[in-house]
C-alpha cells in the first residue's frame, strides 16, 4: 500500500483557478469512487472538503470541486481566495478496509 | 455534533510503547461510526494508522500492523491506540478522527491532535 502521489506545490493568483492532482493505482483510486480531499491550515487538524470524489460536505463552498479519471483524482479550487492557502491531502479507499493518503500539496495564493 | 479529544504522554522512549486515548463527546462510541487514528510526521503528509468499530473490529495499516493495537472502551466512551517498539520515525502529531457520515464518507470529525516525540 503506497501513498498516493500529489505535486508538492501549486499556486495561483486571487480569483484564478488551480487544480491539484492525486495519482494512485488500479488498486485504489482507479477502482473505488471513495476519494476524499482535506484542507489543512498550519497547526490545525485537517478538514474534510470533498468526499466520494466530487461531493461536498455541508458548508464547503462550491468553488471547490472534485473529479476523477482513471487512476487520477483532481481537486479544483476556483476563484482563489486568501483562505484557500493551505496544504491539501487526498485520500482513497484501497480495498480490504484500508485507506491511503497522498503526500500533500501546498497551495500558495500569490 | 461529535467531538474528539486526544490525550497521552508527549514523550516516549525508544523501544517503548506509545499509548494514546481519544475521548468521544457529543455522541456515543457505540453509534454506527468507525473510529480512526491518523498521524503526521514533522513536515510530512498524513498516514492512516487504523480504525476500530464499537464491536471491537479493527483494520490496520499493513505497514504498522505488527506494532499497532486499537481498542474501544465503551464504559468511558473512548478509544485507544497502542504502538509498540517505537523509534524516532514514530515521532508525529497523532490525530483521532471519524467518518460520522458513513464509512466511505471521509473523516469529517477530527481531534486537535497531540504531539508525541520519541526520544531518550
Lay out the secondary structure.
The complex is a heterodimer of chains A (110) and B (120).
Chain A: E1 9-12, E2 18-23, E3 35-40, E4 47-50, E5 64-69, E6 72-77, E7 86-93, E8 99-101, E9 105-109
Parallel strand pairs in A: 1-9
Antiparallel strand pairs in A: 2-6, 3-4, 3-7, 5-6, 7-8, 7-9
Chain B: E1 3-7, E2 11-12, E3 18-25, E4 34-40, E5 46-53, E6 58-60, E7 68-73, E8 78-83, E9 92-98, E10 109-110, E11 114-118
Parallel strand pairs in B: 2-11
Antiparallel strand pairs in B: 1-3, 3-8, 4-5, 4-9, 5-6, 7-8, 9-10, 9-11
3D architecture notes:
The complex is a heterodimer of chains A (110) and B (120). Chain A contains no helices and nine strands. With 110 residues, chain A is mostly beta strands. In chain A, strand 3 (35-40) and strand 4 (47-50) form a beta hairpin. In chain B, strands 2, 4, 5, 6, 9, 10 and 11 form a seven-stranded mixed β-sheet that branches. In chain B, strands 1-3-8-7 form a four-stranded antiparallel β-sheet, with no helix packed on it. The termini of chain B are far apart. The model of chain B has no long low-confidence stretch (mean pLDDT 95). Chain B has strands spanning 3-7, 11-12, 18-25, 34-40, 46-53, 58-60, 68-73, 78-83, 92-98, 109-110, 114-118. In chain B, a hairpin with a 4-residue loop joins strand 7 (68-73) and strand 8. The radius of gyration of chain B is 13 Å and the shape is globular. The A-B interface holds A 1, 3, 34, 36, 38, 45-48, 50-52, 57, 89, 91, 93, 96-104 and B 36, 38, 44-48, 51, 59, 61-63, 95, 97, 101, 104-108, 110-113.
Amino acid at each position: 500500500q503506497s501513498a498516493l502521489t500529489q505535486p508538492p506545490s501549486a499556486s495561483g493568483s486571487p480569483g484564478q483557478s488551480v487544480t491539484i492532482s492525486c495519482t494512485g493505482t488500479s488498486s485504489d483510486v482507479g477502482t473505488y469512487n471513495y476519494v476524499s480531499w482535506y484542507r489543512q491550515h498550519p497547526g490545525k487538524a485537517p478538514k474534510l472538503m470533498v468526499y466520494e470524489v466530487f461531493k461536498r460536505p455541508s458548508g464547503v463552498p462550491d468553488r471547490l470541486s472534485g473529479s476523477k479519471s482513471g487512476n487520477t483524482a483532481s481537486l479544483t479550487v476556483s476563484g482563489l481566495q486568501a483562505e484557500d492557502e493551505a496544504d491539501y491531502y487526498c485520500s482513497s479507499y484501497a480495498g480490504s478496509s484500508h485507506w491511503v493518503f497522498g503526500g500533500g500539496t501546498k497551495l500558495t495564493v500569490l | 455534533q461529535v467531538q474528539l479529544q486526544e490525550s497521552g504522554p508527549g514523550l516516549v522512549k525508544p523501544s517503548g510503547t506509545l499509548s494514546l486515548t481519544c475521548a468521544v463527546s457529543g455522541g456515543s462510541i457505540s453509534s454506527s461510526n468507525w473510529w480512526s487514528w491518523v498521524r503526521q510526521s514533522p513536515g510530512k503528509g498524513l498516514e492512516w494508522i487504523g480504525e476500530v468499530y464499537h464491536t471491537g473490529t479493527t483494520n490496520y495499516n499493513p505497514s504498522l500492523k505488527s506494532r499497532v493495537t486499537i481498542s474501544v472502551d465503551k464504559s468511558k466512551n473512548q478509544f485507544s491506540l497502542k504502538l509498540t517498539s517505537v523509534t524516532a520515525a514514530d515521532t508525529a502529531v497523532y490525530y483521532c478522527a471519524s467518518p460520522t457520515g458513513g464509512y466511505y464518507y471521509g473523516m469529517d470529525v477530527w481531534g486537535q491532535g497531540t504531539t508525541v516525540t520519541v526520544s531518550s
